[in-house]
Design a protein that fits this description.
Pfam family, one: Radical_SAM
GO biological process, one term: water-soluble vitamin biosynthetic process
Strand order of the largest sheet: 1-2-3-4-5-6-7-8
Cofactor: [4Fe-4S] cluster
Largest sheet: 8 strands, parallel, barrel
Oligomer: single chain
Strand content: 5-15%
Structural class: alpha/beta
InterPro entries: Aldolase_TIM (IPR013785), BATS_dom (IPR010722), FeFe-hyd_mat_HydG (IPR024007), rSAM (IPR007197), rSAM_sf (IPR058240), ThiH/NoCL/HydG-like (IPR034428)
Number of helices: 20
Shape: globular
CATH class of the largest domain: Alpha Beta
Helix content: 40-55%
Bound molecules: iron/sulfur cluster
Keywords: 4Fe-4S, Iron, Iron-sulfur, Metal-binding, S-adenosyl-L-methionine
CATH topology of the largest domain: TIM Barrel
Length: 473
């Protein structure tokens, strides 16, 4: 039975409740007065329930859909301003004992090159990432209890934080690894990770079991309850997501929001981020053989409805998406993007030879970080390399309280300007630097508090003239 507070996956992601939600959304997809009342409710910026948001996602009235997009855009502006936080994935190992049918790292794929980075190789990758300008990483690895052990992850995190190359530093390490135990999560927390990320892939249990026929990941309940264990282990920033294209998007959308509601109800804090990857072509995987793919318009609608339903939750898209698609969804709610990504093991230090490919999926947006930064600024976004919250102890419910009151803006905006300035000084091309300096000059006037504005102005000067780094609010 559906129970948002229950610790059992089958209760908080209850199949019957999702079916009832989909039926309710379908019945009401042309119900103008209900849709109007939901849009009004959403304007209060307190979010919507999975049932309510599902009606908006199913809505087929063009005029109302335009109102939904406009509201998502406004909420995005109110909570995140024009900042976009940058990050890069770092693949540690593609050894994996699971049989996920949509991922080239599955155990039976014998023609992919298998690699696990040594600590020395990690060092080289991190220096290459620092030389691009990255400050925030998401570690990625397959599940292999013999090779990819917790000790390996802990040592790798330590290595990454210890590398200081020129003015570079990785200041926040997020990690996306297989579901594990409360004790392991506690160790990750102690090692100083930012967010623990784990995608559900699909919330549809029957499909999940078919898509994950072998390996420990086959255990749907253990996987679905991972975030509960992570929270019990003290990780209060968790990132959820589904892989759109595996099952029907309306089902996944309802499941995703139910998961967020569950974490909020059971632990008092919802997910820190939501990721919205779409299935991509990869070695040994034909994305066309999955028939639940969604087009760009549907994808945009999903992004807008997530923004409305969980206004305080960051939203991430990766280089799986093309430049065109990213442009379309950035203003609707996305707050974090990756740039200059390599989805192979060891691809930053040295590009892979064609006959030894180890990437997880084809990257659609292949531009360099400098090109992405420039592109964002040309659209009037502020690329931000900020990692301040986790380092200032603003995590979990403390972070959420600041988000909900809007006070976080007083930190995000100045931090975006100061970290962008660091990027411009240390890594940008002359053209990007010229654009960025102009943008900073304009945006510094938008720091609302006079005292804070004076501090930011002085810090920007110190970054430029005294080679000082790492200021933060
Ligand atoms: Fe392994 Fe993850 Fe790929 Fe599944 S999705 S095969 S668990 S790396
Ligand atoms: Fe993110 Fe906190 Fe920095 Fe804002 S201040 S961009 S919420 S890390």
């Amino acid at each position: 039975m559906y129970d948002v507070n229950s610790k059992h996956a089958d209760d908080f992601i209850n199949h019957d409740e999702i079916l009832a939600t989909l039926a309710y959304a379908d019945e009401n997809k042309n119900n103008v007065s209900l849709i109007d009342s939901l849009i009004e409710k959403a304007k209060k910026r307190k979010g919507l329930s999975h049932r309510e948001a599902s009606v908006l996602l199913a809505c087929q009235i063009e005029e109302k859909n335009q109102e939904i997009y406009a509201l998502a855009e406004q909420i995005k502006k109110d909570f995140y301003g024009n900042r976009i936080v940058m990050f890069a994935p770092l693949y540690l190992s593609n050894y994996c004992v699971n049989g996920c049918t949509y991922c080239p790292y599955h155990l039976k794929n014998k023609h992919i090159a298998r690699k696990q980075l040594t600590q020395e190789e990690i060092r080289r990758e991190v220096i290459a990432l620092q030389d691009m300008g990255h400050k925030r990483l998401a570690l990625e690895a397959g599940e292999d209890p013999v090779r990819n052990t917790m000790d390996y992850y802990l040592e790798s995190i330590k290595t990454i934080y210890s590398i200081k190359h020129k003015n570079g530093a990785i200041r926040r390490v997020n990690i996306n690894i297989a579901a594990t135990t409360v004790d392991d999560y506690r160790l990750l927390k102690e090692a100083g990770i930012g967010t623990y990320i784990l995608f559900q892939e699909t919330y549809h249990k029957e499909s999940y079991l078919q898509l994950h026929p072998t390996g420990p990941k086959h255990d749907y309940n253990y996987h679905t309850e991972a975030m509960d264990r992570a929270m019990e282990g003290g990780i209060d920033d968790v990132g959820i997501g589904v892989l759109f294209g595996l099952d029907k998007y309306l089902y996944e959308f309802a499941g995703l929001l139910m998961h967020a509601e569950h974490l909020e109800a059971a632990f008092g804090v919802g997910p820190h981020t939501v990721s919205v990857p779409r299935l991509r072509h990869a070695d040994d995987i034909d994305a066309d053989s999955f028939d639940n793919g969604i087009d760009d318009d549907t994808f945009s609608k999903i992004v807008a409805c997530i923004r409305i339903a969980v206004p305080y939750t960051g939203m991430i898209i990766s280089t799986r998406e093309s430049k065109k698609c990213r442009e379309k969804v950035l203003h609707l709610g996305v707050s974090q993007i990756s740039g200059g990504s390599r989805t192979s093991v060891g691809g930053y230090h040295e590009p892979e030879p064609d006959d030894a490919k180890s990437e997880q999926f084809d990257v659609s947006d292949t531009r360099t970080l400098d090109e992405i930064v420039q592109w964002l600024m040309k659209m009037d976004y502020i690329p931000s390399f900020c990692t301040a919250c986790y380092r200032e102890g603003r995590t979990g419910d403390r972070f959420m309280a600041l988000c909900k009151s809007g006070q976080i803006q007083n930190c995000c905006h100045p931090n975006a300007l100061m970290t962008l300035k660091e990027y411009l000084m240390d890594y940008a091309s002359p053209e990007t630097k010229a654009l960025g300096d102009k943008l900073i000059e304009k945006e510094v006037l938008n720091v609302p508090n006079e005292k804070a504005r004076a501090v930011v102005t002085e810090n920007l000067r110190l970054i430029e003239q005294n080679n000082r780094r790492d200021f933060r609010f």
